[in-house]
Amino acid sequence: MTGEALLTIDLTDDERYVLFRGLAEWGGPAHCTDALAAAMDFGDADGLLEEARRLKPLVRAGQPLSRRDWRRVLIATELAFASDVFGSGWDWSITCGLSDEETIKILRALQRKIARSVKIHQ
Asked: Record's superkingdom (predicted)?
């Protein structure tokens, strides 16, 4: 969004990789409905795919994002990882190369860092 402040969040390479993969899954094994995309604040399923294409290289390169984008990246990754109905679910470890155990540890660290930085719960 124009004029919205950008935040840099200090993430590890593994944390950036998980967020990158979380976004990438929506163009692969994960599938989204318009209603789910709207709930994640992407407008519709096409909007999610379009924004994922924009956000993936930014996340991977450690670039700053708006608070809104950080929230959307985190939510999209959480659902891609955890949901077997909409996301990758059981296929996550195959498509991403990380075990569920590795991913959940990284995801919990991301939740703390991003929530603290963007004040998701306010």
From this structure: Bacteria
